[in-house]
Amino acid sequence: MSNDQLKMPKGFILAGVAAGIARKKGKLDVGVIYAEQPCAAAAMFTTNRVKAAPVLLSQRHISKGKIQAVVVNSGNANACTGKEGINTAWESAKLVAAGLQVKPEQVIVASTGVIGVPLPFAKLKNGILRAIAKIQRPTTNDQPLTAFSQSIMTTDTVPKIVSASFNSNGKKVSITGIAKGSGMIHPNMATMLVFIMTDAAVEKDFLQTALKNGVEPSFNMLTVDGDTSTNDMVMVLASGQAGNKTITAQSRESKIFSQKLSQVCRELTIMIARDGEGATKLVEIMVNGARNFAAAKQVAMAVAKSSLVKTAIFGNDPNWGRVIAAIGYSGENVDPGRVDIAIAAGNRKILMCRNGIDPGFSEVQAKKLLHGKELKLLINLKQGPASATVYTCDFTHGYIDINASYRT
Amino acid sequence: MSNDQLKMPKGFILAGVAAGIARKKGKLDVGVIYAEQPCAAAAMFTTNRVKAAPVLLSQRHISKGKIQAVVVNSGNANACTGKEGINTAWESAKLVAAGLQVKPEQVIVASTGVIGVPLPFAKLKNGILRAIAKIQRPTTNDQPLTAFSQSIMTTDTVPKIVSASFNSNGKKVSITGIAKGSGMIHPNMATMLVFIMTDAAVEKDFLQTALKNGVEPSFNMLTVDGDTSTNDMVMVLASGQAGNKTITAQSRESKIFSQKLSQVCRELTIMIARDGEGATKLVEIMVNGARNFAAAKQVAMAVAKSSLVKTAIFGNDPNWGRVIAAIGYSGENVDPGRVDIAIAAGNRKILMCRNGIDPGFSEVQAKKLLHGKELKLLINLKQGPASATVYTCDFTHGYIDINASYRT
User: Fold this and answer.
1) Structural domains of chain B, with CATH
2) Using CB atoms and an 8 Å cut-off, which of residues 339-378 of chain B contact chain A?
3) Which H/E stretch holds residue B214?
4) Which residues contact B240 (CB under 8 A, 6 or more apart)?
5) Is A191 assigned a catalytic role?
6) Global pTM?
7) pLDDT tens per residue, range B215-269
8) CB of A82 within 8 Å of any CB in chain B?
């Protein structure tokens, strides 16, 4: 279905415009979200020591109270831009605040793109003013959800939007998330830009808890290239316009809300992995039989980050030796003589390694399976009850092409 | 100069033959080193939990006492091959021992190549017998040093041999190291196969200390693709035939011996980085101003492992933003506002980032510098006195080509 047929939660108006910040002419590169009422807000930000100006500003604003607007640009990360960069982020918050009659502290600012280059404020200002005008006087030609989701894309090849809904005492509650991300993707939190809106009334502390619980098994289990960005954030705004009773940690609805929020996070995560720079395949690395979750995650991440595993998958090569080598150097105290490794796609599964050695599988059949666009690599350590799934993609010529010439 | 004009230490005889284990027809793939006398021996082995059969066997033999022979094959790693693999390694040690009239426990066994496929013992046996015959009856046509160094190559494009020498009380002492390694290269120890021979008389404990000290700033500071192999070892054999007084930790010569051994390790490390799979450039990541060595190494390694940094270097893109992003997620508590980043080649140097921001450098000049085959990335954290250098290479289409089709 068309993006604009996706159910938008009540109380949010979006816009996206082309402001000439991105290199590609005419590409939408400035987006604004306006909430009709101040929203309970929760967010998680990059753990990179190098934090872009908008991340520093938004962290402060989120901690202060309710949020009523978001402004985001692509094409320039406003990272490593010194005092001037901080000033640009603050000026853009003020500009949005003035145009939409909210306080500057109620505005979240986000940027994504090239690092270390001053963000051209004149262009940004022009974009912000036009986006605000669209929010104030939408026309029937506007496709605001599509436009906003395109305005945050960099090397993404597709916009990424997911919706979910449920009933809360007869009131329909919707959650819609919009993400960008394709390269410089690696946890821990955060690994891209994600804006989630819900019309649920949700208490702020519980919203933060629900977001954290949603992010841990999704965005924090995602790696494209092992590089953690300077600009990443995942945020959720709750407008309360669904009319439901405010959800807190004690509410009966807390569970369904958390579930649906986690589902949105997970589906966006998969969309990002599938659209990883240069990727031809979505790959899920599932580790079972680990001592605990941390161990399972460590093993899955080592495999998901291995350039040798990822190039073998690109080449349709059932080279399980590289998988077990990555398991071996993961840092987790595995027993190689108990490790099983299988490849799965659809409802087919081939065991390539049993108790550390080749059980005699058909290379031809395995190669056939590897030609699929969605693969699962199943690893059983047989050491305990815990499991973890990491989402990644293959490693291809496309990645080299994109990143050898990203700025030039 | 031709490899065989390199000075060989006294007391060693080498051979390399083609046994049909490697896929490429006629490629030399079995090598043998014979020491005329039992040698003091030291070695370091892979830290991968998955250890190949020859690693397990050689660890035992090194711990038992002197070593008199080495047998190595390429084309098959004899890793993840179960009991049969252990048996194959032991049988090959016995075969070498019988042919050269030494004890099986005095034989080091090494393998490199594809993981998880049984090593064809009949082919190996044939190769070992022919290599022994060459050692026993060398002809004037033989180029044993070249042949041995070729017999251990896999995706290497050049053989890697380094010699050094010094005088010990009027006796000339030589050290020659031979390495293989191009992919699946990442510390900690070990990251490839390295065989070092010296005619010095060296006490075993000191030899192990000197090797460890030589390996830490060289092979342990090397990464091609972040993948630690299952088969790696660095070993040194000391024949004592130079006639010098045995070197111990207390000897006056301990310092010069350690220096020369470290020099051999360092030069081989650089040869491996330059010959990294698909590499077009040798890159040294030098971190200064760190609190301590571990911090410096952690930052240098994060940069050296970043796919985004390595593809930018391939594309001649002076994208220092990716470098500072990698510094930021390295895990070390850096202050981004104090970081300097420069690129250097030959005697030219361009500062791309000063105190975390662009000081206004010429992109054109930086691009020109990046076209060189040997680059230094200079990072100053301004937090303390420590420094570290990591050796790596760029990340190219060649790497994808080699590793998408390694087995097929």
Assistant:
1) 3-274 (3.60.70.12), 282-404 (3.10.20.340)
2) 353, 356-358
3) helix B204-215
4) B11, B37, B39, B40, B199, B200, B201, B202, B246
5) yes
6) 0.79
7) 887 777 777 776 667 777 878 888 888 888 999 999 988 999 998 898 888 888 8
8) yes
